[in-house]
Amino acid sequence: MRNCPPRAWASTSFAVELVKLICREDAGALSIQDYLGPAETLLSICQPFYATSQRVIRLEPDAAPGRQPQLREIPYHALSEVKLVHRNNHPMMLAGAAITIVGAYLVTFLLITGVLAIGLGVALLVYGGKGRPGYYQISGWGLAPQEERWWRVDYARSGSFIATLRNAAGQAGLQTY
Q1: Exposure b/e, 106-138, CB count within 10 A at least 16 = b
Q2: Which of 44, 79, 125, 158 could bridge to 164 as Cys pair (CB 3.0-4.6 Å)?
């Protein structure tokens, strides 16, 4: 087997067979349906993520000829959280810093507009630091920090996928954020 790290939760015979299928040289181009178990159904899709009735799958298509697709999975029992991560708004913070500096310069001339500019600049710095929604982070128990980067789902196009994922995880008795 090549490029197939063992998973702590991949102890079932189906998971072992699935890993063998993925790592075979002659597996060819397979669709997501080929990776699903016999009683597993597909609930939602947000490329390259798939929410099924039993797990969350990330299926990366083969990037180069001769390479096999990479399958990563987090079963719902190993799912620890789904949270929204905000990203800083750097252009707004830069504008706030510039306005604050200009306001401090104007205060040296005893102009009241300098105080207003400082207030506006600080407000822009705080608002830009609060940020805007960036992505959803899906985390699993025992997932290494370098593997967590694979489980970032874009905020802008994933609303129904995350709702389905939270619903399925909630039915499995897990708390999501």
Answers
A1: beeeeeeebeebbebbeebbeebeeeeeebbbb
A2: 44
Question: For 108-159, how does the pLDDT look when each residue is reduced to its tens digit (9 = 90+)?
Answer: 887 788 889 999 999 999 999 888 888 888 888 888 888 888 888 888 888 7
- Rounded alpha-carbon distances, angstroms, from residue 139 to 21, 76, 176: 25, 11, 10
Q: Is residue 175 very low, low, confident or very high in pLDDT (cuts 50, 70, 90)?
A: low
Going from the C-alpha of 101 to that of each of 104, 107, 117, the distances in angstroms are: 5, 10, 9
**pTM of the predicted protein model:** 0.61
Question: Where residue 29 falls among pLDDT bands split at 50, 70, 90?
Answer: low
Unique residue bearing structure tokens 């075979």: 24
Question: Where does residue 132 fall: left (phi above 0), alpha (psi -120 to 50 degrees), or beta otherwise?
Answer: beta
Averaged pLDDT score across all residues of the chain: 76
Helices (H), the chain: 13-23, 90-107, 112-130, 145-148, 159-171
Cis peptide before 48 (omega within 30 of 0): yes
